[in-house]
Design a protein that fits this description.
Length: 332
């Protein structure tokens, strides 16, 4: 089975990290987010993935030079301009010649969903499209559905005003589509699958949902990107786990590292403390610095204190300074 994976967003909420690395290439447990996602699709029977890119294909092509990720064959569809979610699905499906039932996935979703079970549910419903659904406490930041007993979706509201959500069941960002869904999307146009295509499917009664209680995170927000990493240190995930410290990192013997991921080629100097944080490849933490609940690609100076912050590849936290809730450098 083939899948279209949407990886063309700008990753705005993860700036400044995404100023040097596109969101799906950011590491989760030392591997690019997209590689973990493709592994999951492969476990569910996907053999070919089309990456729907809005811009900057180079980092993906460099990371997978032979056009494969594990056993899965990768192809690329680069939109001439970002076409939004439905426009991107149509563009990528046309480029790959998709003409059979296929899977669609948002590129920033980390989940233990069994994709084969979603495909089986889709066939059982006789649906035109079937969405994976997850129950959350605050659904207003997502697409929210009203689900009938028979699995049919009777309303889909993208990012509703808090307090007006039809339920707490959200669109979890993995779909199974019949090719007829593609005919509903004008080729080459900028179209949102959530605000446009799903509305038409609801109107025709052909949109279904399967709710599960699998592990699920949209890693596109700083807090959740951090959680998606740290969850690999515990037994939160059904299939995935990772080592806290990359073998290529250098951590001083008297540094303290607690509930954190220390990425490839990172240096943590003497007396530094790193807690509940993710240090991305090549980050440098100075002597006696303290880093808490933060994401770091750049440099944290000696004796600095960084809390609840993000430091991009070009970011430098000056020696001895204190930063709380900051993005460094401040995204322009
Ligand atoms: N190729 C391409 N072109 N991809 C795009 C474009 C585009 O123009 N715009 C967005 N994407 C990709 C993003 O890279 C991401 O992988 C996916 O589409 C979804 O975009 P996000 O920006 O991450 O959307 P969201 O997280 O606010 O909401 C979406 O995901 C939620 C679940 O995580 C929606 O689908 C919600 O309904 C859903 O609940
Ligand atoms: Mg997202």
């Amino acid at each position: 089975m083939r899948a279209v994976v949407l990886v063309g967003g700008f990753g705005t909420r993860l700036r400044p990290l995404t100023q040097s690395v596109p969101k799906p290439m950011l590491p989760i447990g030392h591997r690019p987010m997209i590689a973990r996602l493709v592994d999951r699709l492969a476990r569910g029977g996907v053999t070919e993935v089309v990456l729907a890119l809005g811009f900057r294909p180079e980092p993906f092509i460099e990371a997978f030079p032979d056009g494969r990720c594990g056993e899965v064959e990768l192809t690329y569809a680069v939109e001439p301009e970002p076409l939004d979610t439905a426009g991107a699905i149509r563009f990528a499906a046309d480029a790959a010649g998709i003409d059979d039932t296929f899977v669609v996935a948002n590129g920033d979703v980390m989940t233990d969903l069994d994709v084969a079970a979603l495909v089986a549910a889709h066939r059982g419903f006789g649906a035109e499209a079937t969405l994976h659904l997850i129950g959350v406490d605050d659904p207003s930041a997502f697409g929210v559905v009203d689900l009938s007993e028979d699995g049919r979706i009777s309303a889909f509201v993208e990012k509703p005003t808090p307090g007006t959500e039809p339920s707490n069941l959200i669109n979890a960002g993995t779909y199974v589509f019949e090719p007829s869904v593609l005919d509903r999307i004008v080729p080459g146009a900028k179209v949102s699958v959530e605000r446009d295509t799903f509305q038409h499917l609801v109107g025709d009664g052909t949109l279904y949902g399967m709710a599960t209680d699998d592990y699920w995170i949209d890693a596109g927000r700083p807090e959740l990107y951090r959680a998606a990493n740290l969850d690999l240190l515990s037994d939160a995930r059904r299939f995935d786990r990772c080592e806290a410290v990359s073998p290529s990192a250098t951590v001083a013997p008297d540094a303290t590292v607690r509930n954190s991921i220390i990425g490839d080629h990172v240096v943590v100097a003497a007396g530094a403390t790193v807690v509940d944080s993710v240090l991305l490849p090549h980050a440098r933490i100075g002597g006696r610095a303290v880093v808490e609940r933060s994401l770091v690609m750049g440099v944290v100076g000696a004796d600095a204190r960084l809390t609840d912050s993000m430091v991009g590849a070009d970011g430098i936290v000056d020696d001895g300074s204190v930063a709380v809730g900051m993005a460094i450098p401040e995204p322009s």
